[in-house]
Specification:
Radius of gyration: 22 Å
Distance between the termini: 50 Å
Bound molecules: zinc ion
Number of strands: 21
Mean pLDDT: 94
Length: 504
């Protein structure tokens, strides 16, 4: 999105990016969609520049969501006490009947929720049923572009379904249920790869705004040949790869049983891990896994809200940072992270860093946390040189926080009050690429009332259509739950620098 006026100058704000700016007053000159210059109050600016008065406002870089799933943005409030495995078991309930227009709408809904809470870019692992399509991905990309948000869209893919992926689970199901889930065969890898190739070839949206990546979902849900095909396609088109890695203990145990090594070691052996690779969650990883990811220049998407909600554990973020591994922060999806709220996610990332050890020197501080949620996430998206900073040459992706809100009364410390007290209620304006996407708390790029009406209509239809799937999910739940709890009770050893994971 390009602003209509070439020059804009923000005057009167306090600036915070956790790197060069700590909340002191400063002015900021925007040239088109980029930050041109930052200087003390009174910064010289072209006479025809539009002046944006930001008195009593704290300007921060737009927060960057390192991991979410826009396809389930309509599923808010649908599940309660679900483990990751029970959530995956319920996947037929989510978006299987979506047509092209529905995918566009789901992406728009997710984007709207994110920008309203101060997030300006995200990595969306969007799932299409039964497989990705060039048209579907273009529709998702258009949803983000129409809201005016930056995004990396990675189609979620697998060549085994959830019940096939866990050894012994199919056999544990009663024959009738086994036949039913076996019918929900995953798509051949070749077809999914061909669809992605087509989507990458046909992509028309500016790649600095919305670009494609690849999302082979979970290591044991994909054959090694599928991962190799993803790596080859990623290399051919310069696309990134994003995979859930050792999110739950069940996954870590299954990985060890199937591959005889950790999931990270398995992916590394397949040549998947590189600077363009993001490992989502990475809860059940050890010292060697962290070093391996760091040595390859990969990133981790840390999803603290989701890890708590699904009871999967706590990722060793400080230990990751200590070995030089890049870490971003994500919200995960509406079905497991609930609110797509990056203020909430960054605060939880900070607090959760404190349970591994009683030594405060090993805990994250506010400044580091802000960096994870901005520059750390942006690097994972491949947008590291575009967004995440208030600095000349970066895109003008910024959030104006209202310092009149009670969380800033009195105003003592910009970074600590923003990380520890902000929930998103102070988000006043959100600018992406120099254009206001949210102004005075209102969406500018799309009509919110129309969005609500469209979502309500689709939601009614999806509920009607999901009745049969709902019955199947309920029947499967008992067996899947018991089987996976038993797996999660098996011993699994994790070597750690700092503190020790539960349940060793
Ligand atoms: Zn995920």
């Amino acid at each position: 999105m390009i602003a209509s006026q070439r020059y804009q100058v923000v005057r009167g704000a306090r600036l915070l990016d956790g790197i060069s700016h700590d909340g002191a007053h400063g002015d900021l000159l925007i040239d088109g969609d980029e930050i041109r210059e930052i200087g003390p109050p009174g910064l010289e600016a072209p006479a025809d520049g539009l002046v944006i008065d930001a008195a009593d406002q704290l300007l921060i870089p737009g927060l960057v969501n390192a991991h979410t799933h826009g396809d389930v943005s309509l599923a808010k409030g649908l599940g309660d006490r679900l483990s990751l495995e029970l959530l995956l078991n319920a996947s037929p309930l989510t978006s299987e009947t979506f047509c092209l227009e529905d995918k566009y709408l789901a992406a728009k809904l997710a984007a709207a929720e994110m920008v309203l809470s101060g997030c300006t870019a995200c990595y969306d692992l969007f799932s299409e049923f039964p497989m990705p399509s060039a048209e579907g991905l273009a529709a998702v990309g258009q949803g983000y572009a129409d809201v005016g948000m930056r995004a990396v869209v990675a189609p979620l893919m697998a060549d085994r379904n959830f019940w096939q992926a866990i050894p012994g689970l199919l056999e544990a199901l009663p024959p009738k249920l086994r036949d039913e889930v076996d019918r929900s065969q995953s798509v051949p890898a070749d077809a999914a790869i061909a669809a992605c190739r087509q989507a990458l070839k046909d992509w028309t949206i500016d790649r600095d705004q919305v670009r494609l990546a690849l999302g082979p979902t979970i290591p044991h849900h994909c054959e090694p040949s599928f991962f190799r095909a993803c790596r080859a396609l990623a290399d051919e088109f310069g696309a990134a790869i994003h995979t859930h890695v050792a999110e739950s203990k069940v996954q870590a145990v299954v990985g060890m049983e199937k591959f005889g090594k950790t999931l990270t070691a398995h992916l590394d052996e397949l040549g998947v891990i590189g600077p363009d690779f993001t490992a989502a969650h990475a809860v059940w990883i050890d010292d060697e896994d962290m070093r391996r990811l760091a040595d390859r220049g990969a990133s981790v998407a840390h999803n603290p809200t989701s890890n708590l909600r699904l009871g999967t554990g706590v990722a060793p973020v400080k230990a990751m940072l200590d070995v030089g591994l890049n870490v971003g922060v994500g919200t995960d999806a509406s079905t497991c992270g609930d609110a797509l709220n990056m203020f909430e996610a960054q605060r939880l990332a900070n607090y959760l860093s404190r349970i591994h050890s009683p030594d405060p020197d090993t805990w994250l501080d506010a400044k580091t946390t802000l960096k994870l949620a901005t520059t750390g996430s942006a690097r994972g998206l491949g947008f590291g040189n575009l967004t995440g900073r208030l600095a000349p040459g970066f895109k003008a992706d910024m959030v104006f926080l209202d310092l009149k809100k009670i969380q800033y009364v009195p105003f003592n410390n910009a970074v600590r009050q923003m990380v520890y007290q902000e929930t998103g209620t102070a988000v006043h304006h959100v600018m992406i690429g120099g254009a206001f996407v949210v102004q005075a708390g209102e969406l500018q790029t799309i009509n919110y009332s129309a969005l609500r009406a469209d979502v309500a209509r689709l939601n009614d239809r999806v509920h009607d259509e999901s009745e049969m799937a709902d019955a199947l999910v309920r029947q499967l739940e008992g067996v899947v739950g018991d089987f996976c709890v038993a797996l999660a009770q098996k011993p699994y050893h994790v070597h750690r620098f700092v503190g020790i994971q539960r349940d060793l």
